TrEMBL record:
Entry similarity comment: Belongs to the peptidase A1 family.
Protein name, as recorded: Aspartic proteinase Asp1
PANTHER family given in the database record: ASPARTYL PROTEASES (PTHR13683), EUKARYOTIC ASPARTYL PROTEASE FAMILY PROTEIN (PTHR13683:SF227)
UniProt xrefs under InterPro entries: Aspartic_peptidase_A1 (IPR001461), Aspartic_peptidase_AS (IPR001969), PEPTIDASE_A1 (IPR033121), Peptidase_aspartic_dom_sf (IPR021109), TAXi_C (IPR032799), TAXi_N (IPR032861)
Amino acid sequence: MVVKSKGIPLATLLLILFLSAIFPTSFSNQVLNSKKPIPSSSASSLGSSVAFQIKGNVYPLGYYTVSLAIGNPPKVYDLDIDTGSDLTWVQCDAPCKGCTLPRNRLYKPHGDLVKCVDPLCAAIQSAPNHHCAGPNEQCDYEVEYADQGSSLGVLLRDNIPLKFTNGSLARPMLAFGCGYDQTHHGQNPPPSTAGVLGLGNGRTSILSQLHSLGLIRNVVGHCLSGRGGGFLFFGDQLIPPSGVVWTPLLQSSSAQHYKTGPADLFFDRKTTSVKGLELIFDSGSSYTYFNSQAHKALVNLIANDLRGKPLSRATGDPSLPICWKGPKPFKSLHDVTSNFKPLLLSFTKSKNSPLQLPPEAYLIVTKHGNVCLGILDGTEIGLGNTNIIGDISLQDKLVIYDNEKQQIGWASANCDRSSKS
């Protein structure tokens, strides 16, 4: 979910008084640059990684999640994985707006509020002139996502126990949001997850914090299966020694996104008018989005290619804006992909690093038996000229975001296999 920047509103007096009661003004002594040892069988784990099993799918669920343990004793929370945002947050056991989970699945805070004067608080604020009313003021946050959803809450720290691939254990104190006011927009109901695992490259992400503590390399990767599930990892131990193609990340002063490009679109291995696309890789987006001009060109290419084939527009399917029906309902993508041509994104700043998009990487078959285009018009939903590579186009690929070398890589992979294999 690509985040839109938004200022932090002042909480009401009643809410401040309540939060002051449930969040004692005691703060963790173990900050991100602490010299104190972290409880671990091997405090230096830079040569290791942390792996998580992924659940979910593009359709019909619309998101992928991992389970993250938080607290002491730990409690497990299912979080939507999102490379399009930095902040991790969980629904807070507080007077809550927009919280749909039962109370026993909410996060119960135990203190350790992040102070407003903490550098992490300044990092989460969009305003350049971040101001604190007092040294002990709590750090409020608000994030608004491109789909118009949002989360408002307070930043705190708690233990997040992790088991590394080298067998070591750690319980670092990491900062995340305790969200007490969530909004959700869209046709589908809000996800039944407890929050969002922000995997962006900003300072507030869990990934950046683990790297600051010296526990991992600043690398994250995921493998999303087109059949559902997959795996996620922090660190660089699970990167294959060969077969990965790399392209450099673009430096952006306005947002901490995994943006790359420019890239030219090929249709059936032929050049098109769609050129120079800058693309954000966003695991928090179910579908891929092109700006209006690129989207219109792509739709025309597909429509012209479908002439004479036994497919016609299915205007009554609400699943996605553009769908087609056949002589009889489709049961799977295997029934229909032969009617569609492969796409390819060629990155002009790096040689031999095309992103292959076979029909399976841009189509879904709906419960109505129609086939729908999973590349949508982003301008129509307020993305402007922003282009997003979402989950549908990241399936069955090992995708690696290397913040140390400022590059992103991918390779075809069997994401049904475990991360160990």
